[in-house]
Amino acid sequence: xxxxxxxxxxxxxxxxxxxxxxxxLSLEAxxxxxxxxxxxxxxxxxxxxxxxxxxxxxxxxxxxxxxLHFVLHCPSTFNLAFPRHNSRFKTGSCS
Length: 95
Known about the structure:
The chain is built from three helices and three strands. By secondary structure, the chain is an alpha+beta fold. It has a three-stranded antiparallel sheet with strand order 1-2-3. A hairpin with a 2-residue loop joins strand 2 (48-52) and strand 3. Helix 1 runs parallel beside helix 2. The longest helix has 24 residues, at 6-29. It is elongated and about 45 Å long.
């Protein structure tokens, strides 16, 4: 049995799960033109760097997860905001 305090054990388990989810979403997001630096999370800031349509974003793990989910499931929202990039990536609609 672990000697970790229950709060710390849950936090570590959640952080590990979140990182694995980001890795998985990062691979999927390559199909829509989003490139995620997963090594950046190991930096002092702990932020992930995402490049999408030539724009660079720096987000915490939680926001990175949400942003990757967003670009995978709601690309038409981005295409409305940046129509000149429409032809570069697949489009879809939010469900």
